[in-house]
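Box 4.2: Ligand-aware structure prediction
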Amino acid sequence: MAVSIHLEGLTRRFDRGPAALDDVSLEIRAGEFLALLGPSGCGKTTLLRLIAGFETPSAGRLRFDDRLIAGPGCFVQPEARNVAIVFQSYALWPHMTVGENVGYPLRVKGVRGASQARKVAEALAAVDLSGFEARRPADLSGGQRQRVALARCLAMEPGIVLLDEPLANLDVHLRASMEETFRAFHKRTGATLVYVTHDQGEAMALADRIAVMERGRILQASAPATLYAEPASEAVARFVGHGAIADAEILLAPGDGHARVRLFGTQADIRCAAGARPLAGRMGRVCLRAEDLEIDGPEGFAARVLSSTFKGSHVRLVVEPLAAPGTRLALNAPHRRSEGETVRVALRDGWLLPDGAAVAAAPACEPVPA
Ligand SMILES: Nc1ncnc2c1ncn2[C@@H]1O[C@H](COP(=O)(O)OP(=O)(O)OP(=O)(O)O)[C@@H](O)[C@H]1O
Ligand SMILES: [Mg+2]
């Protein structure tokens, strides 16, 4: 049975430095697929270890459904939590066969004989490894080993599965095919999944919701499309999809989810939070994605081409608006352009950041990664 996970002000401090996990509150629905995304050291593994019971919270509470699992005066041991973990390294026992590896958690539970063999065969079939029972981990490919680790999880029938960068050791092709395996795995177990990854594409493709972390905190937890289109802050806008950030003057914001702004010397209609009414005449910060910018339209602002890179299906341009020296915007074009050439760029869309709206001063636009 899937289990909901409730983090209430969960904090983990180690001896030195700032808290590895800092007052995190989040509700993870039963059966949800939640991806955790964030730079190295932001606390992703610490969060998983707290859920699994390999760490004790310094403050706050952890509940599974209505049951207190960890908190003041309470700590349920890891083996009593019915949580399965898959790590980046497969953590299979090399001296055991595939069948013995998958059957191990069943043996611990007292499931033996024909009943164990049937469950092992079922779990292996679910990850497309029927008939691999007698093989040794050493005789498998990286992807196959990771699938054995997943089968071992399946056999446990856990309510919660935690995955810490399970595909990090696999090559690009294998990663893509494993995405399908994970989707099927989630469907089959119905378990609540928390999936740590460095790969934004993977998180976007698989997760019901993505939580973006930074310095021990969750900055935003939203559905992938919302996270991309409506980042709550500049940090999320920059981290997810490399959004460019620029300052704009707000001309009109009637509160219907749209705002008219002046940006790089031209006017444009962009999106803003529904109901938000940033003040006309004030400055706001806008997140611009490559697909918000269109080259060679009749209108738009003038920009200088800084670089032009062939990407196969398109050409990636980095341009600098003449009206905002130092600002770099990435966009996609059908053909290569010469460096130093002046082009016209139209603003088709954009997102007025809720946390940056209506700032008083107007500092120069900031550069963005190419
Ligand atoms: N046992 C420990 N003792 C001291 N500090 C620790 C310990 N475990 C983690 N930390 C610190 O806590 C912070 C968060 O670490 P964590 O492993 O959770 O990061 P992460 O987001 O998983 O990073 P990565 O993407 O590199 O795996 C880091 O600053 C780390 O150095
Ligand atoms: Mg980690």
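In the box above, the bound molecule is adenosine-5'-triphosphate. Residues 144 and 214 are 33 Å apart (CA to CA).
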